[in-house]
């Protein structure tokens, strides 16, 4: 297992646990217990039952016929957009809320950017009757009003992060500070494969149900469990981690990680961390990070609020550095084109994040007899205002 | 080579007042005048904050001072330039406090070597884990005669406190209660069980209590349980008052040392 985490919490040179002492007991408690708890039969039983009957798993693996014709290859879509709450995020929050319960925690905190992870957290907290506090950048609260409304409807308290750039990285800082201030009763549900060890590994494991299902479903449809390519978008990288997970040690399956180029790599308005980042420390993890020469974290940009994170999960930094994954970057305009393309060819409106993965289809150069699985991580309901504006569909 | 931190604790084992401020705050060139004025007012040890964009362990006051300092143009090279002649002006023990990333980008070895050359005595990097320090950096810090100061909290186990104690030779920074800096989770010095537990452990390093110490009362109380106390956020707030830097510092330090 060359690409999974080692006993010290590292993926190659990335990962680790760079946290102040105030967080050490909490993170250590989790590190010592997460694998044991995940292996407990009653934990697995409760989680599997919720994933099936509550989340709606397994999600379909859909052969996209017209899209395949257009690219002259065989394209399957892993329909994470059909999960309850509209994205893959809930795979992780179901797992982590059960983890929190096993650890005896009563109060759940989370960070959110676009609001998908916040909604998925508020949802499982409502289900379990747990107090839920979601930190969200003040700027994002204004940009993502429908998801703020959903969280409130679900009984969560949404706390604006007013520090720094008032977006995802600052919401994460505020959630971490909350955890420092409340070390006994609080559990922090991180939404991506970021943060101090064991979070990146734990979140990847909870999301790995995606590639576990892809393998079985593809085998049933094509006779082989291995596609030629698995394609997923990467912000922090949780849906990609889940889609890649069971293929990490199968080198004949090419992994394609798609980052947001924003207005273009060289525009100064981008979120393509693998291109623009250098090794550094963010949110407790050593990884690739967009920063100034002096080591101050910079604010990324993408039209997609779920991809504008200045770092990337340490697993992905390792996949990039080792060459195991191919990294592509897609601009706002290319992603928007891909939204329209999928909508009109297949009748599926994808999330802006997932559209970045779709937009990479033209770059891959797959042959007619090859197979591509694209992880369709979320649906586009939350992005409809952007779509109506950009496609000039208002009033038509 | 003389270790100013060790000498300080020998000469003054009690009621030691340590003050933290953010370099380059409120104005870029205030760093050196602040150090000199603190010394003139009888402060024993100074922690110079190196501002970072994402200070995880800090509350709103130090976050804001860091933002201002960064906007003012504070960087590690700028700070080292400001401090290059500081040892011709004062012998007060100086500790640099910041986050790991800017130091890593500057280069840890270069950072240690230049800090040592300036006459810095100790370093606090709250997000550098003990295990990583011991594995990768301890030799480097020792070679440059820099004391690495670690934090402990009420939740830190005895075993871990002993481990920390064995790897440092300056002092132990006792975080008063579970909080970020400037925290107001009740009385900062109410946790007497914790302070007693630590003082009875017979550690080789002295302890200073920090986080939430903000006035004469909390300072005195903290000094009853440890060798001294660290004041950060309350001092930063004082610097934001109307009036000259010198006046603000004098008024604040006097208010700490004696009841108003």
UniProtKB/TrEMBL annotation, chain A:
<comment type="function">
    <text>The beta subunit is responsible for the synthesis of L-tryptophan from indole and L-serine.</text>
</comment>
<feature type="modified residue" description="N6-(pyridoxal phosphate)lysine">
    <location>
        <position position="89"/>
    </location>
</feature>
<protein>
    <recommendedName>
        <fullName>Tryptophan synthase beta chain</fullName>
        <ecNumber>4.2.1.20</ecNumber>
    </recommendedName>
</protein>
<dbReference type="InterPro" id="IPR006653">
    <property type="entry name" value="Trp_synth_b_CS"/>
</dbReference>
<keyword id="KW-0663">Pyridoxal phosphate</keyword>
<comment type="subunit">
    <text>Tetramer of two alpha and two beta chains.</text>
</comment>
<dbReference type="InterPro" id="IPR023026">
    <property type="entry name" value="Trp_synth_beta/beta-like"/>
</dbReference>
<dbReference type="InterPro" id="IPR001926">
    <property type="entry name" value="TrpB-like_PALP"/>
</dbReference>
<feature type="domain" description="Tryptophan synthase beta chain-like PALP">
    <location>
        <begin position="56"/>
        <end position="378"/>
    </location>
</feature>
<keyword id="KW-0057">Aromatic amino acid biosynthesis</keyword>
<comment type="pathway">
    <text>Amino-acid biosynthesis; L-tryptophan biosynthesis; L-tryptophan from chorismate: step 5/5.</text>
</comment>
<dbReference type="InterPro" id="IPR036052">
    <property type="entry name" value="TrpB-like_PALP_sf"/>
</dbReference>
<dbReference type="Pfam" id="PF00291">
    <property type="entry name" value="PALP"/>
</dbReference>
<dbReference type="GO" id="GO:0004834">
    <property type="term" value="F:tryptophan synthase activity"/>
</dbReference>
<keyword id="KW-0822">Tryptophan biosynthesis</keyword>
<keyword id="KW-0456">Lyase</keyword>
<dbReference type="InterPro" id="IPR006654">
    <property type="entry name" value="Trp_synth_beta"/>
</dbReference>
<keyword id="KW-0028">Amino-acid biosynthesis</keyword>
<comment type="similarity">
    <text>Belongs to the TrpB family.</text>
</comment>
From TrEMBL, chain B:
<keyword id="KW-0822">Tryptophan biosynthesis</keyword>
<comment type="subunit">
    <text>Tetramer of two alpha and two beta chains.</text>
</comment>
<feature type="active site" description="Proton acceptor">
    <location>
        <position position="47"/>
    </location>
</feature>
<feature type="active site" description="Proton acceptor">
    <location>
        <position position="58"/>
    </location>
</feature>
<dbReference type="InterPro" id="IPR013785">
    <property type="entry name" value="Aldolase_TIM"/>
</dbReference>
<comment type="similarity">
    <text>Belongs to the TrpA family.</text>
</comment>
<dbReference type="InterPro" id="IPR018204">
    <property type="entry name" value="Trp_synthase_alpha_AS"/>
</dbReference>
<protein>
    <recommendedName>
        <fullName>Tryptophan synthase alpha chain</fullName>
        <ecNumber>4.2.1.20</ecNumber>
    </recommendedName>
</protein>
<keyword id="KW-0028">Amino-acid biosynthesis</keyword>
<dbReference type="Pfam" id="PF00290">
    <property type="entry name" value="Trp_syntA"/>
</dbReference>
<keyword id="KW-0456">Lyase</keyword>
<dbReference type="GO" id="GO:0004834">
    <property type="term" value="F:tryptophan synthase activity"/>
</dbReference>
<dbReference type="InterPro" id="IPR011060">
    <property type="entry name" value="RibuloseP-bd_barrel"/>
</dbReference>
<dbReference type="InterPro" id="IPR002028">
    <property type="entry name" value="Trp_synthase_suA"/>
</dbReference>
<comment type="pathway">
    <text>Amino-acid biosynthesis; L-tryptophan biosynthesis; L-tryptophan from chorismate: step 5/5.</text>
</comment>
<comment type="function">
    <text>The alpha subunit is responsible for the aldol cleavage of indoleglycerol phosphate to indole and glyceraldehyde 3-phosphate.</text>
</comment>
<keyword id="KW-0057">Aromatic amino acid biosynthesis</keyword>
